Here is the input.
Amino acid sequence: MVYYDKRGPDNTEKTLQIAKETALKRGIKNVVVASTRGDTGLQAAKMMQNSGIKLVVVGHSTGHLEVGQQLMDIEKKKEIENLGAAVVLGPDVLTSFPGAMKAKGRFSEQAMVAGALRMFGNGVKVCVEIVAMASDANLIPVEDVIAVAGSSKGADTALIIAANSTNQFFDIKVREILAKPRDF
Here is the structure.
């Protein structure tokens, strides 16, 4: 396990390398990586290319920040796909609906789950979300995968997770923490 003293993009390359090496060493066939604008996803796609690891890059749905706006750069998305990775763009399992509820002055149980996961770091919450999203898209099997996410930009968190879909959310299990920042 690696603990970073600081969160952020300076940890991206090392975190992706940890994910790749662990997947190869343990025979884990699928890696899921969060990428808002496509930078981390593209870096992961280049690193995982021809490794035998199936990579799924997960980004936000259109309208996440502004109506009609897609945050992932379309050219980076195409390049990621050309390198052999799949890309999923969809609503965040734990934050999209709760955000809509909060805007209306209402509460959702998903916000409590998200808050509890954030106690371990925002990257931990995002790792759980992206595994559910990739499973919902039928791009990963219900088995152990490695998830990579960040606390802000880049990647600083890597987990081994027993994957499952949103419908079976509480069957998702964090098996191991491979890397995370201390200051989240």
Q: What stands out?
A: Residues 12-26 form the longest helix (15 residues). Helices lie at 12-26, 39-48, 74-82, 96-103, 109-118, 122-136. The chain has one domain: 2-181. The beta strands are 2-4, 30-34, 54-60, 86-90, 144-149, 157-162, 173-181.
